[in-house]
Amino acid sequence: MAYQELNEQTILDYIKTRPSLSDQLANLGELTAKEVGDGNLNTVYILESKAQPGQGIVIKQALPYLRVLGEDWKLTRERIRYETESLRLYNQYTPGLAPAIYDYDDEMSLVAMEYLSQHLIMRKALVERQQLPHFADHISTFMANTLFFTSDMYLTGLEKKELQARFINPHLCKIQEDFVFTNPLMESPENQWNPLVDDEVRRVRANGALKVAAAQMKARYMTHAQALIHSDLHTGSIMLNPADTRVIDSEFAFCGPMGFDVGALLENLILACLSHYGHTDDADVRAAYQEYLLQMVLDVWTQFAAKFDALWQDNNRGELAPNAYWDWPGGQDAFADFRRQYILEILRDTAGFGGCKFLRRMIGVVSVWDISSIENTAKRAIAERKAIRIGARWLLERHKINTIDDLIAIVRTEMART
Hints:
Number of strands: 12
Low-confidence stretches: none
CATH topology of the largest domain: Aminoglycoside 3'-phosphotransferase, Chain: A, domain 2
CATH class of the largest domain: Alpha Beta
CATH superfamily of the largest domain: Aminoglycoside phosphotransferase (APH), C-terminal lobe
């Protein structure tokens, strides 16, 4: 059928026209439809069984505009194809760490997927100070597998370039290029921030070294096609419970720098940590959970680096530097050094991209719910000020970063400042 924007009434008729959904719908009986999309781009519907609450499907439809900014901001609907294809790859490389895909309708720019009724958006879980004992293991596996198996260390040159062609994604890359790297650091009409941090905003925008560094990271984002990256991997794009983790919302996927995914994730964990200056009044409780989140940052990186290195050693079938290249006396030591330097580069990119993401969230177009939900603007400013300072330092000091402890030390220093 020709494209039309669905609503809570028409979507119930629409699903009856999709034979590929018949198995999923067979035992659900009468359904209710509720639009729950709180993102920036699309509409999301939960179709839930009246007789079996918690059972159903989710349908996500791309709109022909950028939802967060309104209908005047036109946007291609092809992003739903990028999301569907990347989720299918995630299910191939990391089974059980992404929702199952049931149906894809290209004309309607729509995908039907698993309903994760027992899961919570990670941002909310962290604000509630939940303990997530398996998260570091799950997300480090997700990042290591998806990034390695779509890289030049695993794919042949032909396979990699075919992957790049499938995921060129120019329109959503343009959104990131503008709203992450450029617009927050200059006057732009969509920018917004807490007036109580005006002084920090002025300092950022007048800092020549910082703006050079952000432009360098933007150039890297635009040109460094290391692997298929999610490109929006944050705590709002993860649904979980204490036992299970699923990565969602991959419509920004393209072949880019690995550190962008890692940096976005670690930056969001630290924003969650900072948000407790506004969400948790008891100083001891707050400090304990903040320490828990800093340990999570350490665990995620440490496990990611170890898993990525192990995958590389066991699966070096790509054309970047094949095993035959290292087949000489002393070659294995050289290979180990190459891997070490490559992973260090990812860590330094993590710092640079994470730094840019800190700044865009605090002084750009879209904040994060962890921070924006703090109603007391003075308490919110405490978190925002620290985030801006951490972001600036991660970005400026990225070349000095040698271990994850160096990144966390910057966070601790800025958290201790008044």
